[in-house]
Design goal:
Largest interface: A-B, 31 and 28 residues
Number of helices of chain B: 11
Radius of gyration of chain B: 20 Å
Strand content of chain B: under 5%
Shape of chain A: elongated
Structural class of chain A: alpha/beta
Low-confidence stretches of chain A: 1-11, 283-291
Helix content of chain A: 25-40%
Largest sheet of chain B: none
Oligomer: heterodimer
Distance between the termini of chain A: 30 Å
Helix content of chain B: over 70%
Mean pLDDT of chain A: 84
Mean pLDDT of chain B: 91
Number of helices of chain A: 11
Shape of chain B: elongated
Number of strands of chain A: 13
Structural class of chain B: mainly alpha
Strand content of chain A: 15-25%
Number of strands of chain B: 0
Strand order of the largest sheet of chain A: 5-6-7-3-8-9
Distance between the termini of chain B: 31 Å
Order of helices and strands of chain B: HHHHHHHHHHH
Chain lengths: 356, 264
């Protein structure tokens, strides 16, 4: 650690580690987090990829880092995986300090990297075998576990095939099986389903869901809202190296978005229609939408916020029925009422502009 | 959790390299056979017949036939070439294309285990190829001392004296653009001017002194002494020491550059 750890919040046990043996006598609320970070920072030269973030992951939960490309998710993930040294702040994983006990921590983690790094010349089973050997698992143990894992990821028939010709989804499943070879306490998944077709993604999700039911703690990064919504018990939204929101998917939607979204479509006249809708709304637009903000108590406003897109206007509302009744006065092509999703929260918090 | 702590060791990663080698050993051994046959036939026999007629096993070649002079030199030079090949693209690939090292780094293995395992594999490859080379030399009748069985070991040391600093350098690269320049203008001149094809005493004094600094010259002297059974013993200890020192320095350097690259 180069800089002093920021330390836990006042009034919380300083030990923080989940293995602490003074638990019974400690006067402070005890942190039993599997992973805890305070002021965690990663800089590459002048560029700050992760800018002093705090988070905790509890045993058995599925915890997500959600954010656009370049938000610092992967850098955070690499620090948790003990393959990247933090440049500031403090990080404890399984009660240990990664800068001193990286090897011991890694022996209890399983990592699925963003880019598959399977050996394409080796067979499916051989990939699992060599990886298990890195963990010093005996051959006899490996033989049984490989069979079990291949069955779990539905690759038993391909056991002796070379990896190179496998489909993207199969390779991904094999990478997940490989990460499970050491029976890890925490599974780290960096964008587990990026680049897969819909069928393959659903198979991956279904497998991760099964692991979740078995109580495997999972930490994942994603920029897919549906992935975060389906898998995560709790998540943080990251933007430009910082955490901008935290909670369960439902909490985030309640806190940062209205219950429903009314999408009003038009024939390329969005600007004119937005004006008409604005007059209809009786009330001014919600506070400047360029800074993330929490919602105030819901009001009588017809809608809370309007957002103009090229072909439609999105109205964020808790009163969709009243709003619909009034829409007759505005010329439009079609209307769609839908529940708010994490995607609405995400776009609200991190903006629609492209960050590269 | 009641399970024993993992003790990472390079041997755990060596298994990977050996498993991968099983896929390509046939082709690699064939190359190891053909290359010395071509060189020894063309230069040892073809060119050698001219040299022997002109020089007549003279003083300049230490009283040796040209084939006997050339073969152990090529043994060392060949080891250098192979070691450089094994420590350029495969090492960059470990970081960048195949990401083998990255996969290993996510396991309990430390950067030291990762690089030592790959070095051990390179040494194994070069030693194996050098023994094949020695076999071909013997078939050509270019071996005159039983001590020659030690020559492949020395050739491998010569190779590793190149492989370790080369890998250390490669770990700092993001692409392979400089590799052919390195091979063409650093390695090739050493192959040509370090006493493989003629004694370095034939060179201008400045070049001769530069040749003494190159690891391959030391490797060539070692292999030639062992294969012909004639050499000054204290001088050989010096050659060995020089190569071992380079390997140690290269390994320490690689430890630094690998660690920086793996955990950046």
């Amino acid at each position: 650690m180069q800089s002093e750890p920021a330390g836990p919040a006042a009034g919380v046990c300083c030990r923080s580690s989940y293995d602490c043996n003074r638990k019974a006598r400690c006067p402070y609320p005890h942190r039993v987090s599997l992973i805890a970070a305070w002021g965690l920072t990663k800089r590459f030269g002048d560029f700050t990829a992760v800018d002093g973030i705090d988070f905790e992951v509890q045993r058995g939960e599925v915890f997500g880092f959600l954010g656009p490309n370049g938000a610092g998710k992967s850098s955070t993930m690499r620090m948790i995986g003990c393959v990247s040294d933090p440049t500031g702040g403090a990080l404890r994983i399984l009660g240990m300090d990664p800068s001193r006990e990286g090897t011991r921590i890694r022996s209890r983690l399983g990592a699925v990297p963003q880019q598959d790094n399977l050996d394409e010349e080796l067979s499916v089973a051989e990939n699992l075998y060599v990886y298990g050997r890195y963990f010093d698992l005996p051959r006899s143990v490996l033989r049984a576990r490989i069979a079990e894992l291949l069955d779990f990821v539905q690759l038993t028939e391909r056991a002796d095939d070379q990896v190179e010709p496998l489909s993207g989804g199969m390779k991904r499943r094999l990478t997940i099986a490989r990460a499970l070879i050491s029976d890890p306490e925490v599974l780290l998944l960096d964008e587990p389903s990026t680049g897969l077709d819909p069928q393959a993604r659903h198979v991956v999700w279904e497998r991760l869901w099964t692991l979740k039911r078995r109580g495997v703690t999972q930490v994942l990064t994603t920029h897919y809202m549906d992935e975060a919504e389906q898998l995560c018990d709790r998540l943080v939204v990251m933007d430009r190296g910082k955490i901008v929101a935290e909670g369960s998917p439902r909490q985030l939607i309640e806190r940062y978005c209205t219950r429903e979204v009314v999408e009003v479509r038009t024939h390329g006249q969005a600007a004119a229609m937005a004006d008409a809708l604005r007059r209809l709304g009786e009330s001014p637009e919600a506070p400047a939408a360029d800074t993330p903000h929490e919602r105030g108590p819901s009001s009588d406003q017809l809608y809370e916020r309007a957002e103009e897109l090229p072909d439609r206007v999105l109205l964020y509302t808790d009163q969709s029925e009243r709003l619909m009744a009034q829409l007759g006065g505005v010329e439009h092509e079609s209307v769609l009422v839908r529940r708010s999703t994490l995607e609405d929260v995400f776009l609200h918090l991190t903006g629609r502009s492209l960050v590269d | 959790m009641g399970r024993a702590a993992v003790v990472p060791r390079p041997r755990l990663a060596i298994e990977y390299w050996l498993l991968a080698y099983r896929r390509r050993w046939k082709g690699s051994l064939l190359t190891s056979f053909l290359s010395p046959i071509l060189f020894l036939a063309a230069m040892g026999l073809g060119l050698g017949s001219l040299v022997d007629a002109e020089v007549g096993s003279g003083r300049d070649l230490g009283g040796l036939d040209y084939l006997d002079f050339l073969a152990p030199g090529l043994l060392a030079g060949n080891a250098m070439m192979l070691a450089v090949n094994e420590s350029t693209y495969p090492v960059l690939g470990g970081f960048k294309w195949y990401r083998t090292y990255m996969a290993m780094a996510a396991s309990p293995l430390r950067s030291r285990d990762i690089l030592l395992a790959h070095f051990a594999y390179m040494a194994f490859r070069v030693t194996l190829a050098s023994f094949v080379f020695l076999g071909v030399m013997a078939a050509f009748g270019a071996v005159s001392s039983p001590l020659a069985v030690l020559a492949p070991i020395c050739a491998a040391l010569c190779g590793m004296a190149f492989a370790t600093p080369t890998a250390a350098f490669v770990a700092t690269r993001t692409n392979g653009d400089n590799f052919s320049t390195y091979t063409r203008f650093v390695i090739m001149p050493m192959f040509l001017f370090s006493g493989i094809f003629y004694p370095v005493s034939q060179l201008p004094v400045v070049l001769e002194q530069i040749a003494w600094l190159t690891p391959v010259w030391h490797g060539v002297r070692l292999c030639r002494a062992l294969s012909t059974g004639s050499g000054v013993e204290w001088e050989l200890a010096g050659h060995l020491g020089y190569l071992v020192a380079l390997i140690l320095a290269g390994t320490l350097l690689a430890q630094q550059t690998f660690t920086r690259r793996l955990y950046e």
